[in-house]
Design a protein that fits this description.
Elements (H helix, E strand, L loop, with lengths): L9 E8 L6 H10 L14 E8 L2 E8 L12 H4 L4 E7 L3 H5 L1 H11 L5 E7 L11 H10 L3 E4 L8 H16 L1
Parallel strand pairs: 1-3, 1-4, 4-5, 5-6
Antiparallel strand pairs: 2-3
Bound molecules: guanosine-5'-diphosphate and magnesium ion.
The site of magnesium ion has 4 residues, from helix 1.
Length: 177
């Protein structure tokens, strides 16, 4: 690492979207701080968090935006999507409804964001396998049909979280460079 005078070659805005309580905020804190907060209310009020990655000897700052709970009222504004070049569209593998809403989120995302946006469909809470309500095949099929990347993650157990964000950031880099 190059310390305080670190030069940043790229900044990519990535947005987290999906129903309330699917684990968006926990995925973000797991990725940026390697933390899982039992009391998740603790992180409210922060618009985005950043993490700098190195790809191809270039420093890439991922600026990852989280909602402050406004998704509960379907009130995510266009400012939230503005300038986003990546998105993590999250559902909960134990909540069928959160997967059924993915198509709506995708429509809203595509209506607001850059047309070349890189999208990862994320099935979170893979640690709760015994409560699974969304077969992995359903999600894979949807992702394939819509040309999305797809991964199941667990913010709790830190499974695939790094990998999901890295895939998105690397793909954005590949698209723009
Ligand atoms: P958000 O509303 O989408 O931001 O969801 P939160 O990140 O606030 O998480 C909602 C609830 O799900 C909280 O009680 C979290 O502790 C829990 N949660 C989040 N991620 C996971 C996970 O990977 N596994 C399990 N078992 N619970 C999770
Ligand atoms: Mg949240």
């Amino acid at each position: 690492q190059r310390g305080f005078d670190q030069k940043i070659d790229y900044v990519f805005k990535v947005v987290l979207i999906g129903d309330s309580a699917v684990g968006k905020s926990q995925l973000l804190s797991r990725f940026t701080r390697n933390e899982f907060n039992i009391d998740s209310k603790a992180t409210i009020g922060v618009e985005f968090q950043t993490k700098t990655l190195f790809i191809d000897h270039k420093s890439v700052k991922a600026q990852i935006w989280d909602t402050a709970g406004q998704e509960r009222y379907r009130a995510v504004t266009s400012a939230y999507y503005r300038g986003a070049v990546g998105a993590m569209l999250v559902y909960d593998i134990t909540k069928r409804q959160s997967f059924d809403h993915v198509a709506k989120w995708l429509e809203e995302l595509r209506g607001h964001a850059d047309k070349n946006i890189v999208i990862m469909l994320v099935g979170n809470k893979s640690d709760l396998a015994s409560l699974r309500a969304v077969p992995i095949e359903d999600a894979k099929e949807f992702a394939q049909r819509e040309s999305l990347f797809f991964m199941e993650t667990s913010a709790l157990e830190a499974t695939n979280v790094e990998s999901a964000f890295l895939t998105v950031v690397t793909e954005i880099y590949r698209v723009i460079s």
